[in-house]
């Protein structure tokens, strides 16, 4: 039980990678704070954790709003007494593929969720971890945070920003006992993947073919990588990007 008695917070914990990671944390005996905008889905995550014998609470929050982010950290500390681990996973992807047709509203939406949300989350998580003298943070980027996806320029920019933000923060707080890393998945079997492909089999087949391993990933495979980075098994790792991509960017 590598997270025994730890307190872990997961943003975007209402589905997909976030939900799977929240459950994985609980299975390793962490107390989990599940954060998301959708109450019903959040409560379903809590139910699944409790069925697995874990302990968790749900906090409704929008990571693009500082008051919500501050409140989610305060709630975690108020209920469980501390914050040892944070997985900043909330994100969005939908955009018009043509850069010259994209709107300012599209730009603001993607950057607010994918970049501002991570920055605000780290800002308040690190403040609490500094009081404790330790902590581990994992941020979700993407294969598009390392290489460019030409049909998703805004998403690509936002996920590159997450990598850069993580590296800078990791260096700033390395001597304070706080480790900060990135997990970078390629295509994963989630609702977001279904939406991005429009549920079209030919599109799914094409994307699958881009992965040398011969398939796309599962949320559990990403959760396992996050679990490792979150734990003391990764005690000498900070400022790094762990690819969970079936060889996609190694080509």
Give an account of the 3D structure.
- Helices cover 47% and strands 16% of the residues.
- The chain is globular, with a radius of gyration of 17 Å.
- It has a seven-stranded parallel beta sheet, sandwiched between helices.
- The longest helix is centred in the middle third of the chain and has 29 residues, at 104-132.
- Strand 5 (135-140), helix 5 (153-173) and strand 6 (178-185) form a beta-alpha-beta unit.
- By secondary structure, the protein is an alpha/beta fold.
- The chain has a single domain (7-250), classed as NAD(P)-binding Rossmann-like Domain (Rossmann fold, 3-Layer(aba) Sandwich), CATH 3.40.50.720.
Strand content: 15-25%
CATH superfamily: NAD(P)-binding Rossmann-like Domain
Give the name of the CATH architecture: 3-Layer(aba) Sandwich
What is the CATH topology classification name?
Rossmann fold
CATH class: Alpha Beta
Please report the distance between the alpha carbons of the first and last residues: 36 Å
Write the layout of secondary structure elements.
Blueprint: E1 7-11, H1 16-27, E2 31-36, H2 39-51, E3 55-60, H3 66-80, E4 85-88, H4 104-132, E5 135-140, H5 153-173, E6 178-185, H6 191-197, H7 201-209, H8 219-230, E7 241-244
Parallel strand pairs: 1-2, 1-4, 2-3, 4-5, 5-6, 6-7
Helix pairs in contact: 1-8, 3-4, 4-5
Q: Which properties best describe this structure?
A:
alpha/beta; seven-stranded parallel β-sheet; globular; 251 residues; 7 strands; 47% helix; Rossmann fold
């Amino acid at each position: 039980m590598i997270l025994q008695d730890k307190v872990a917070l997961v943003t975007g914990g209402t589905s997909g990678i976030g939900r799977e990671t929240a459950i994985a944390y609980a299975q390793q005996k962490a107390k989990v704070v599940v954060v998301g905008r959708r109450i019903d889905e959040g409560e379903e995550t809590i139910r699944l954790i409790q069925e697995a014998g874990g302990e968790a609470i749900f906090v409704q929050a929008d990571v693009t709003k500082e008051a919500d982010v501050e409140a989610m950290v305060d709630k975690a500390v108020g209920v469980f007494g501390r914050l040892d681990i944070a997985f900043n996973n909330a994100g969005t992807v939908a955009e018009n593929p043509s850069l010259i047709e994209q709107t300012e509203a599209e730009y603001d939406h993607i950057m607010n969720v994918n970049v501002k949300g991570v920055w605000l989350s780290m800002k308040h998580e690190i403040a609490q971890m500094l009081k404790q003298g330790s902590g581990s943070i994992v941020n979700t980027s993407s294969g598009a945070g390392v290489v460019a996806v030409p049909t998703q320029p805004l998403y690509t920019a936002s996920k590159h920003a997450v990598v850069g933000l993580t590296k800078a923060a990791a260096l700033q707080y390395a001597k304070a006992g706080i480790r900060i890393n990135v997990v970078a998945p390629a295509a994963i079997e989630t609702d977001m993947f279904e939406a991005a492909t429009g549920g079209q089999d030919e599109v799914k087949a094409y994307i699958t073919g881009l992965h040398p391993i011969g398939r796309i990933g599962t949320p559990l495979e990403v959760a396992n990588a996050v679990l490792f980075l979150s734990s003391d098994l990764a005690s000498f790792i900070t400022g790094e990007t762990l690819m969970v991509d079936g060889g996609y960017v190694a080509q």
